[in-house]
Every structure is written in structure tokens, then in C-alpha cells.
């Protein structure tokens, strides 16, 4: 099953959000399964890029250079540290962060509030993760 995750595009001045296809097998039945499968996909992709290292460096297009320059960093997407991420720790962190309210998850326009909440997903549904930013400072 393909779900569309809304991602902010790097370097877009108007904070353009674009859907990116994520494949889920098996179909998640709860919010916990949805987060676990999403994190698994992201960590596996990251670790694959680490393993490929500099062997997979591709030339950047002019648009990519312009977009990256807009945010102040031009990079080839190579992880020079070479350290893979532990999948179990990433999943635990994502689940704990959800429970702590660090981010919210929306399926289409409905907020998912509990990890063991059952969900009904269909092909090409829209999924949005919103990280909540804590405000720092003091009141005068």
C-alpha cells in the first residue's frame, strides 16, 4: 500500500509542502504500527546511504544547488561519519516522542491521538507528521 507523506521541500521560500510516496507492507492497523513502519523505512534508507557512501555521489542539478543555497548549505547527501543508526533505538525514540507530544500525526485531516488507536488507511491517503517546536525564553 502506498501512503503519501507530506514533506517540507528544502529551500522553498514559501515553505512548499509536497507529498512523497511511502510503501507500507503489511498495511498498518494501529498508530504504533504506522510509526514503526515509517521509522523502519527511513532508517533503512539512511543506513543504505551510509553504506553506499561516496560511491553513490551524483552531480547536483542547478535547481538543487539553488535550493540548497537558499537554506545556506550545499551538500551531496553523503554521510561522511559513516555511522549507521540502530533501528530499535530509533523506533523507541519515535514512539516515546509521540507519547510525549513532541510531534503530532494526521491521517488525511484527522489527528491520531493514541498509539494503540486503530486506523483505517486506504491507498494514497495523506499522512502528515508535525513536529512541535518548544518556545524558549522567559516572560517579562
Describe the 3D structure.
- The chain has 140 residues and is α+β, with helices and mostly antiparallel strands.
- It is built from three helices and five strands; from the N terminus they run ββαααβββ.
- The chain has a five-stranded mixed beta sheet with strand order 2-1-5-3-4.
- Helix 1 crosses helix 3.
- The chain starts with a strand and ends in a 9-residue tail after the last strand.
- The mean pLDDT is 84.
Task: Spell out the key features of this protein.
single chain; 140 residues; alpha+beta; five-stranded mixed beta sheet; 3 helices; 5 strands; 20% strand; globular
* Straight-line distance between termini: 51 Å
Strand order within the widest sheet?
2-1-5-3-4
Low-pLDDT runs of 5+ residues are none
The helix content, as a percent range, equals 25-40%
What's the mean pLDDT score?
84
Biggest sheet record: 5 strands, mixed
Taken from the alpha-carbon principal axes, the silhouette is globular
Gyration radius, rounded: 17 Å
Task: Summarize it.
By secondary structure, the chain is of the alpha+beta class. It has three helices and five strands; from the N terminus they run E-E-H-H-H-E-E-E.
Explain the layout of strands and helices.
Blueprint: E1 2-8, E2 17-23, H1 31-52, H2 62-71, H3 87-99, E3 103-107, E4 110-112, E5 126-131
